[in-house]
Batch of 4 targets.
Target 1
Amino acid sequence: MNAKRVVIVTGAARGIGQAIAGAFGDSGDTVVLVDRDPDALHSTASALEQGGADVMARIVDVTRSTDIDRLMSDVIEERGRIDVLVNNAGKNTYFDAVTMTEDDWDSAMDVDLKSVWLMARAALPSLIESRGSIVNVSSIHARLTTPGMFPYAAAKSGVEGLTRSLAADYASAGVRVNAVAPGWTQTRLVDEWAARSDDPDALSKVLRAHPLQRIATPEDVAAAVEFLASPGARAITGAVLPVDCGLSITFRVD
């Protein structure tokens, strides 16, 4: 893997984004941490710096093009290039299609879909120069979903369509665009869900539904992202790589 690439990771302050940033930092890359939570961002940046990583940390609202343009200018000015963009920022949304307001819809799409386009649009000129790559974090919900996930599933389906379109449009410029699609992942959200459940066996049932009898860790997702951004994936573009411990290959009736 090439050392000292410049890698931008959105939603980098915790969870999957934090693991992704750590993986690139451990590989010797310069990592640009992007998040809206200043305390969590500072904590993650400090931890990576203590581990020897070259880090930039920026508080950015990825739904605002002015914030994004300022970010890209800072990165180019301070590090000279952009080699990898990881669009990880997102939020879970749970609405009923009838009662959901237009403002709720716009907010959900802004974070989970529009931000991916805005970040790609701003980074692509530099990525073309570096013949770099984009890795978008989608979700298993883009193709397989459950009741109560509206409109999250719609947004993530859009992320995968955007991934394919950008891959096709910029392949001739040497830019690869791929996505990972995590399923259940051991994050704070899963812990909180299990704690709220009335079923003490809820998490065990989830584990049994997975062929590998486990759910992914943030580090599992980070490893997949790092691979797709690496020279080892130089023949891969427009792909969506599931990171779901086999859940999406099953047809369960129990």
Target 2
Amino acid sequence: MTIVNYADKIIRELEQAADHLPAAETESLAKRILAGGSVFVAGAGRSGLMTRAFAMRLMHMGIPAYVVGETSTPGLEEGDTLLIGSGSGETKSLLPMAEKAKSLGGTLVAITINPESTLGVLSDITVKLPGVVKDKADGTSQSIQPMGSLFEQMLLIFFDALILRLMEMKGQSSGRMFGRHANLE
């Protein structure tokens, strides 16, 4: 099979998965973000990279957003939101920070394949995305892609779609957002 064939299969998978994005939970999340407070994001591995991309777009919108673990990240305060991307919802390094955020009066959001996971159950808002948990991707799953690739790609697509919804809700344009783009590159 060629790279073009694989790319076509991946795009078809993403199209099918996009049909299952949850509208109600997404709207609740958008309203929560616009309600105020800072947004903190966390995730491990490739899921973490997708949450970092989301934090950047929130910053471009003028919404205070931080990546957990960075040296310039302030402390979470009551009324802030911690958003965690975790396919399994069981990533051991993420669960203690979820519990800490709740104890500080933060709103906890889980973006996961498994809403019944420890993280999903603990969260105030749980958004279920299509995908395959990486250690369950054994070649018999609904994805041709390795490990958690489908979830990670859907996470980025979901975040970009959420940004578009937030832009619509705030009456924000791409041009206005570009004014907050890094200028020391």
Target 3
Amino acid sequence: MRVNLLGYANDDQISDLVFERDFLWKNQEVTLAFVNGDQEKQLQFRRIYFQWFLSTHIHFKEVPLNHSADIRVGFGLDKQSSWSLIGSNSAFYSYDIKFGKIFRDHKKTNYPSLVVAFNTQREILHEGGHSIGFNHEHFHSLANISWKKSFIDGSMTPDLPHNYIKRNYLKKIAPNKSLGMFDT
């Protein structure tokens, strides 16, 4: 058994995830609320998202939206995009979809910190991993990924702004800020 950022892992794979130490949850109990979605969507989300219980020290407690939840979940709110703030950033920031801005959210309002476009297992687990502090494997400084020049300069994908490419693909996390080689 390997020791990792979340204590003792039940699953060896989790010890190889890439994370940003500054954004790991310090609290063992993290509150979660739904911004929208019917009971069926919320139940499906719970069934999948709470699988993170199995290999982390985090205990999720669902609360009503007006109780200042740490993680605020929205369904299909952002033009068929799925995303999540990384880890404990959710407790301090929210995302205003209308204006496309992350803002300091002292009151933890009804703005989301995690959005899934489609309520699928892949999207919920992927964004859920981000919400507890994990990041993409290509951010690891030892990942040794070679990107095509046409991708880096944006000519391959003109619909993606260069800042988006830099932020979501080219960013590197120092070895002392992440534990494993791969985000599985």
Target 4
Amino acid sequence: MPLSPLELLKIDHLLTEDERDIAATVRSFVDRRVKPQVADWYDRGEIDLGLVKEAGSLGLLGMHLTGYGCAGTTAVCYGLACLELEAGDSGVRSLVSVQGSLAMFAIWKFGSEEQKQTWLPRMAAGEALGCFGLTEPDFGSNPAGMRTHAVRDGDDWVLNGTKMWITNGSAADVAVVWAQTDPDRPGKGIRGFVVPTDTPGFSAPKITKKLSLRASITSELILTDVRLPADAVLPEVEGLRGPLSCLNEARFGIVFGALGAARDCLETTLAYAATREVFDRSLGGYQLTQAKLADMALELQKGFLLALHLGRLKDDHRLDPQQISLGKLNNTREAIAIARTCRTILGANGITGEYPIMRHANNLESVLTYEGTSEVHQLVIGQALTGENAFS
């Protein structure tokens, strides 16, 4: 009997029973709630926000955090959940990972007790949605150059600036916004602010006409004289260490998540090749097709072993940022290559919405470059290897 793409190495045997149960639960949720509808969401450029409360009821939001209503699972369990979510769609995984690994993690790691009590239980339950405002129109890979700034006015802070490409932005109840508070210290005076989105001066117009991540809300954040009380600032961090540590949490989820999109492409392609007849025999019976399938299965399994190794390191508190870069660089690069190769096997059928291949491929174009482009991760790895900073 044909094997599934991850069975050749008996990878399931490397997981604990709890890990397999969580993966199966999330896969069932995706099969029931996401896959039947996601092609229509993608076509319309929207996502059903009812997923937020449903994900909260399953304990998926901030699931790797402890306390405040969070599930407190392992990093590997969180990674497996990301894989299963992205097998549905990258936009669904983005919704969950931005909520938990960016917005919630920033408050959980660096917030005051009052900020944690105010926001985290509601966010874990899916009763409040968060976003993370770091990237700007002119500053993506170089966040130290951000122009969004915050100045003191009496006991208050006043924020002005613009953020771009913000997942969940126009639907969020709270935004974690990073701003420069000391223009004489670029990159050093950056502080995080917890900004309720109903604060006067805050707006989040939705970005439209996207050709990737269409089943996801992407927005611009505009802050015009947004006045916040002194206790809106995240008290436990200053400088780029804050937002970059949050990005590492989210990048870890991508290391697993990208494999979910690749697996769904490969599973779809295996089923297609078994039934599609070309010259009176199945497409899967041709040597060139089997060579493609073998190479893709190999890279998928290697990527999973890498992700699982990084997850075990993270659970053992031994994971370094450059190791996350290794995982993000490899697994997003291989996932998009798998999606593109699967498309060639499906031929013209591969570009239709009847199959998920082109949707995954388009989404992975974004996953490849957001939260650190491949070039940025290459430089992180290069610096680790040589000790030389080649960023500038």
